[in-house]
Amino acid sequence: MISVRDYVSHSLEIHLFFGRIMKEHSFFLELGFTPRDTNFTQQADQFRIEFDKLLSDVVALSNGVVNPEVLKSGEVITRYTLSAETASSFYTGVTLATDITRAEAGLMGGVTQPITPALEERVYYINQRAIELTSKLINFKSTILADVLACRMFTVNYPLLLDHIMREAKLYLHMVQHLQSRNNLNIRREIINQELFWNRIMAEHSKFIRGLLDPSEDELIATANNFGKEFDRLVEESKEAMDRAIPIERVTEESLAAVRDIREFKSQATEGLIECKIKSIIIPLLGDHTLREANHFFRLLKMFEH
What we know:
- The chain is mainly alpha-helical.
- It has two domains: 1-66 and 107-185, Protein of unknown function DUF2935 (Ferritin, Up-down Bundle), CATH 1.20.1260; 188-306, Ferritin (Up-down Bundle), CATH 1.20.1260.120.
- Helix content is 75%, strand content 0%.
- The chain contains eleven helices and no strands.
- Helix 6 packs antiparallel against helix 7.
- The longest helix is centred in the middle third of the chain and has 33 residues, at 117-149.
- The two termini are 23 Å apart.
- The mean pLDDT is 95.
């Protein structure tokens, strides 16, 4: 059984990362529909607003409760998040909740706050809200993907991206359900599964970036393509480690080096998008979004290393 403190802190940490990821998925979906599908646009917008509310409630409970390493990792927000949101709001006319980002910037980690029964109960109900909301979002994403694949709908989001964001939502749902069962969420036991999952995500990020850059950005396209090939190789190595063909320690070491490099690439790319120095059809918040996911994976790998 998980301790009450770990239940509360782990729950809040998962929501700080994935809650923001889900609200941004909703935003990216919202931007991708054609004028014919305004009902889908409105549904995506409503999901974004609901995840804003969830994340806001999580932030209000997190000060002095969550692990400082999570806050320092760059997976909750980065130094670009606020600027990326501001630029993306300007481009789209969609008002993004920058007050949440500002509140997150002021969060302090550690164990300075007592874990009271009232706090535990509030976290329990936040988890239940997250399970219900994420389940609905998964169904929404599944409907969109099915319609796109059957040529019943056109969206500017790649079919692979729709599948990609659905897998991330399913992982979030699985982790929160696991916590609600009060079983210890020991990610170390799932090292291979986590590395396989996130190496695949990094490979797909690279391919999305490659495909959304302006065709004239030859150097950036080549770099993104090379990262795609590198992470494809690591996906295969993760599968071999799962079959015990190679040691997982080797995959962790190689993944760590690759993620360190792609974090730097994504950081420079996000800055370039915000400063209008890169030609692309990438909304700035998407750059920051992929950077935060790389930061999350990097923290996990550093944890697995010890």
